[in-house]
From TrEMBL:
Keywords: Dioxygenase, Flavoprotein, FMN, Oxidoreductase. InterPro entries: Aldolase_TIM, NMO. Signal peptide: none annotated. PANTHER family: 2-NITROPROPANE DIOXYGENASE (PTHR32332), 2-NITROPROPANE DIOXYGENASE-LIKE PROTEIN (PTHR32332:SF20). This is 2-nitropropane dioxygenase. It comes from Mycolicibacterium thermoresistibile (strain ATCC 19527 / DSM 44167 / CIP 105390 / JCM 6362 / NCTC 10409 / 316). GO terms for molecular function: dioxygenase activity; nitronate monooxygenase activity. The keyword Ubl conjugation does not apply. The keyword Oxidoreductase applies.
Amino acid sequence: MPLTTKFTEAFGIEHPIAQGGMQWVGRAELVAAVANAGALGFITALTQPTPKDLANEIARCRDLTDKPFGVNLTILPTISPPPYDEYRRVIIDSGVKVVETAGSNPAPHLSHFHDNGIKVLHKCTSVRHAVKAQELGVDGISIDGFECAGHPGEDDIPGLVLIPAAAKQIEIPMIASGGFADARGLVAALALGADGINMGSRFMCTVESPVHQKVKEAIVAGDERGTELIFRTLGNTGRVASNSVSREVVRILADGGRFEDVRDLVSGARGARVYETGDLEAGIWWIGTSMGLIDDIPTVGTLLSRIIRDAEHLIEGRLQAMVRSPAGADQ
Ligand SMILES: Cc1cc2nc3c(=O)[nH]c(=O)nc-3n(C[C@H](O)[C@H](O)[C@H](O)COP(=O)(O)O)c2cc1C
């Protein structure tokens, strides 16, 4: 039996689970596998070096699935921004019907997407930003707690508080993100007021994920303490795997260093070497605290059917048993 929520109904998918945008990782093979398994995957637009490459990647994903999938558009605070308008045009022209925005205010893009019948799921890390996005008219919120891989924001509020605090004010469909990896997390998110979950790290450690096998094995071997928070002093915190490079970055910045002093260490080219070659010390690579919950490398299909089956058992078994009247209580 499917788990039906406001999120599955509004976004037209079978399971209340999304695979958020992942730089380098969010490519056609993974996104199509997520779509084929009934969840909502996002191709990461900026992983493609040019808008034309994004058009090709979307076409490649279409060849691999006839189910709906989306595109993540990460709006970065950068001095020389990528040509966002051109990426946006490609997304619109491709006929994709859902976009995940993240990183900054989605306002400049929203009407363009809406005018073309595209739903926008905005990912953010604070209640105030979620409320603002709701006021702007986005179609769904992905609320990303401090546990997450990537950019957890600067408030350091974990999901246990962030999700119900957001749920008090968010009326549109809202999914919970950061630290989710299994059925227990999904059921907890639903109990906290969310309509589903978003996962990054967990999907990165599947058969269809394009990262090197050694990266997947490191995730399985790692635990919940295996991350570092870089760029804290720059007000642009990022949660990444703990390795010699990330620890060096933390040290340099804590000693008063500036971005220029770590620019080479954190370069995307070095990070890509980790994913491509499996050299875990080649650069910065992104992973969340949910590493402590990831113990295997399943196919996406196996992972999703396990999460849904276990969630149903948890709700109908363990939780239901707790609310059953004790024998003889009503006599
Ligand atoms: C390797 C990797 C790269 C990521 N890159 C992006 C990105 O480019 N844009 C974005 O919005 N989120 C990015 N994220 C964050 C995920 O979309 C998601 O919000 C996050 O992974 C959720 O936390 P979890 O890893 O605990 O599931 C990335 C996450 C990972 C693991």
